[in-house]
Specification:
The protein is mostly beta strands and 346 residues long. It contains one helix and 27 strands. The protein has two domains: 1-19 and 162-279, Jelly Rolls; 27-161 and 281-315, Sandwich (Jelly Rolls), CATH 2.60.120.10. This is Pirin.
Length: 346
């Protein structure tokens, strides 16, 4: 399927495949998580499948690195940012600075790993009387060399504060990150590549019911990269070209992008864009730096300091089933609608 269906806007196209998906600078990594978790027990656990590193995309759900509760127990990062944009389900966050939170159902969590942080991301099955479907994107955004060793920081953008455009035909564009026709997303962490709006970093989630369309203007950054992921649906129209398979496409960010659904059922897209950092990228596991020597130093630093250690009683820490959505930073707890997005330095 590679390069089938090129148009003036589509520079290349291929089958989407299984995650992680291809990305372009300034992005490093993109995964679409979709898991049909069953009802949980009183401990929010799932019936175990897999063998401790469960990434079977043919199964109805995955345990990932979780043993009883699915998710990713404590692990380190350095040199980049994680953007976790949710649609359904719940995620419990804990980190090496003692901060934590529960978010999901449209919330966005943004973490600058900077010089080093350890965090856990678990997916507790909080519903005991019904299923616990979980859908979200995790996206890694690179940091330039001058900011790779900044202090870690954290922002929670509650769904109530995430801007959306809803057209009369039912098309919806969720502005997780960036600008769209004069509308702006909530601020990124201060050291992010996205904090400079001239880099025009964008994360757009588009849902199209039958017979609907949406247009995304050209990027304001003259050298921006733009990629598209058709993640759901049996038909999508990209720049006038019909696709009946899930695709990954590299687009010309200098041209307007029109997305349509002329088929049956709902189609969903993710669009990533941004000016490139244009620096060497050396990645090894959870660390992303500019040189191999810096990667080796990251491993040494983690072995010696554990990036502050792990203050939680369990590696796969989760909060009580009735806790609800919250963010805890520097000894202060915030919740949706209580005056802000919840942010702080880790």
């Amino acid at each position: 399927m590679t390069n089938r269906g090129l148009t003036n806007t589509i520079l290349s196209v291929s089958a989407l495949g299984t995650p992680p998906y291809q990305t372009l600078d300034p992005f490093l990594f993109c995964v679409y998580h979709k898991d049909a978790y069953p009802a949980g027990n009183p401990s929010m656990e799932a019936p175990r499948i897999g063998n401790g590193a469960d990434f079977d995309h043919s199964a109805p759900y995955r345990m990932y690195h979780g043993s009883k509760i699915p998710g990713f127990p404590q692990h380190p990062h350095r040199g980049f940012e994680t953007i976790t944009a949710t649609m359904e389900g719940i995620i419990d966050h804990t980190d090496s600075k003692g901060n934590g939170g529960r978010y999901g159902d449209g919330d966005l969590q943004w973490m600058t790993a900077g010089k080093g942080v350890v965090h856990g991301e678990m997916f507790p099955l909080v519903n005991q009387d019904r299923g616990n479907p979980t859908r979200f994107f995790q996206i890694w955004l690179n940091l330039p060399a001058s900011r790779k060793m900044v202090e870690p920081s954290f922002k929670m953008h509650w769904s109530e504060d995430v801007n959306k455009v809803v057209r009369e035909d039912g098309a919806t564009l969720t502005l997780f990150v960036g600008d769209y026709k004069g509308m702006k997303s909530s601020d990124s962490p201060p050291d992010s590549w996205a904090s400079d709006r001239s880099n025009d970093v964008g994360v757009f989630y588009v849902t199209l019911p039958e017979g609907s369309k949406v247009k995304i203007p050209p990027s304001s950054a003259p050298d921006a990269n733009r990629t598209l992921y058709m993640i759901e649906g049996s038909q999508g129209v990209v720049d006038g070209r019909v696709f009946e398979d899930k695709i990954y496409a590299v687009l010309d960010a200098g041209k307007e992008l029109e997305l349509r659904n002329d088929g049956v059922g709902k189609t969903e897209f993710l669009v990533l864009q941004g000016a490139p950092i244009s620096e060497p990228v050396v990645q090894h596991g959870p660390f992303v730096m500019n040189t191999s020597q810096e990667i080796q130093q990251a491993f040494r630093d983690y072995q010696q300091t554990r990036f502050g250690g792990w203050p939680w009683e369990m590696d796969d820490m989760v909060f009580p089933v009735d806790k609800g959505r919250f963010a805890f930073f520097d000894g202060k707890e915030t919740r949706p609608g209580q005056g802000g997005s919840g942010s702080g330095e880790l």
